[in-house]
Amino acid sequence: MLAGVNIFVLRHGEAGNQTTMPSKDLERPLTESGREDIELIALSLRKLSVGFDRIATSPLKRAKETAEIVARVYEESSPKLEIWEELRPEGSRQETLQRLSRLKQDSDILLVGHEPYLSSLIGEVISGSSARILLKKGGIAKVQILSFAPKASGELRWLLTPKHLKKMNE
Predict the structure, then answer these.
(1) Domains with residue ranges and CATH for the chain
(2) What is the pTM of this model?
(3) Is residue 128 a contact partner of residue 153, using CB atoms and an 8 Å limit?
(4) Cα 6 from Cα 142, distance rounded (Å)
(5) What digits encode the pLDDT tens for the residues 1-30?
(6) Contact yes or no for 21/31 (Cβ under 8 A)
(7) What 3-state DSSP class applies to 26?
(8) Angle value at C-alpha 83, between 96 and 129, nearest 5 degrees
(9) 77-100 pLDDT tens trace
């Protein structure tokens, strides 16, 4: 079996209304409903025995809050929570891939961020192009990166909508 790095790509939960002022948009928090949804989603992921060696998040408030909720739900396995500037909406996918390439094989990393950045990152890894998927707020995809050279390539293993994940807790 090929070794690789597994990335779990999670879009932040529902946040307040977008603002035209970039500085205020950076600090837009999750809504109460968004926090509740992310908690249910994290509980569902645990039920599925999905685990993480570390959690990397965009520094924007809504993504950070999403990552913190997941980390709290996974508290006993204590995945390390890290802020990655390259996961900002305008961040560099190449820098993210370079950082991932330095991790040990068979690592399981949760990346928490924004659209369209995340679906573009997935498309780049699985098809080598700008192929895109739709990643809803609270949606998660598992991608196994099999190689980083000459460029990142891998396979989409699964994609779950928030609706499917929340239904697991009913």
Answers:
(1) 5-167 (3.40.50.1240)
(2) 0.94
(3) yes
(4) 7
(5) 467 899 999 999 999 877 666 666 678 899
(6) no
(7) helix
(8) 20
(9) 767 899 999 999 999 999 999 999
